[in-house]
Amino acid sequence: MTGINIKQPLLDQLPKTLQNVDQRRRRLRRHKSAPMAEFVPGEMNDTKDDQSLPHYETILDKLHPSFRKVILYLVIYVTIGTTCFYFVRDQIRGKKVNGVLDSVYFCVVTMTTVGYGDLWPNSATTKLLACFFVFSGMAFAGMVLSKGADYLVEKQETVLFKAMHMRDKASPSEILEEIETNRVRYKCIVTTASLVVLIVVGTVFLVKVEKLSTIDAFYCVCSTITTLGYGEKSFSTEAGRIFAIFWILTSTVCVAQFFLYVAEFNTQSRQKELVKLVLTRRMTNVDLEEADLDNDGVVGAAEFVVYKLKEMGKINQEDVSLLLDEFESLDVDQSGTLSTTDLTLAQSS
Q: For residues 44 and 58, what is the distance between their CA atoms, to the nearest angstrom?
């Protein structure tokens, strides 16, 4: 009894905030959709982990699944293209250095639409093959390679943020928030830096290996990465074509992503200006009438938010109408609110 008398006053002295926190925790534990705590499988059973066989990760295992898929598709495409062009190599004219290497080089130049002209098809079969691989290569580069490039750029965003804020002690949540807010700007910075590096590397390589002048090397680089490919300057040595296979793929995709991010950045900037204009503009009686969706003479918080989102261009009236129709179909008892009874009746009907 004395123990109970001592403990009860102590419980009564606890701050109400702590009691509320404890109640919220209990509700969270009872809630069926409460988030599961993250755990490491090894922490669940240390004994079992010690007895398990060692697992050695390969380089592919460390890559993101989407990036592994990009590599797989690229290898399949280049392998098929190289095989086809190798069997018809005698029907391809131009300066050749090695049968297999020339086939891979011609496949990459065709896929990226660079088309130097140092190798060209000279029969109906090779011309039809080139037509097929140029269209399929454009689709592949647009749908698959761009995803891989986008993934690599996103991986560098965190590195860029940390480099720009080395002296600031930012938490992981602050880093994520900053990256999400300025995602497009960071993408533009990363792709610009990558493009400059690729241009410099390509120019230096052409000067050192292909023995071109600095102007001709830079001219060849620019005509390559923009897929212009005039053809009077190209990779003609064996080492040059080995380098070109990887460099052309990387540089052409990087240029495409650069212009994509620049366009996205301009669109986002215009969108932010529109949002700022909408938020600073004062409401009028006409705005209140338009925001009054249920025509009851007053505008609630939900109606105000919907109206402002429409002004910002984030949603339109068709989206609102579709959502209202779905709400009315779920609101079986026509009460203006949704409950578990409404959902049960709607599913049964």
A: 25
Q: What is the number of other CB atoms lying within 10 angstroms of the CB of residue 205? A: 19
Is residue 118 within 8 A of residue 240, CB to CB? The reply is: no
Please state the three-class secondary structure of 84-138 as a single string.
HHHHCHHHEEECCCCHHHHHHHHHHHHHCCCCCCCEEECCHHHHHHHHHHHHHHH
Q: What gap in Å lies between CA 52 and CA 72, rounded to an integer? A: 30
Span 275-330, pLDDT tens digits: 788 888 888 888 888 888 777 888 888 888 888 888 888 888 888 888 888 888 88
What the block records as the tokens of 281 is: 């503009």
With H, G, I as helix, E, B as strand and everything else as coil, classify residue 15: coil
Q: In the block, which residue shows the tokens 């297999």?
A: 100
Please check whether residue 202 is in contact with residue 255, taking contact to mean a CB–CB distance below 8 angstroms: no
- pTM (two decimals): 0.61
Query: Residue written as tokens 């398990």?
Result: 52
Cα 262 to Cα 260: distance, rounded to the nearest angstrom:
5
Closest CA to 209 of 247, 243, 249, 252: 243
Amino acid letter at 277? Answer: L
Residues in the chain: 349
153 has a pLDDT exceeding 80: no
**CB of 80 closer than 8 Å to CB of 108:** no
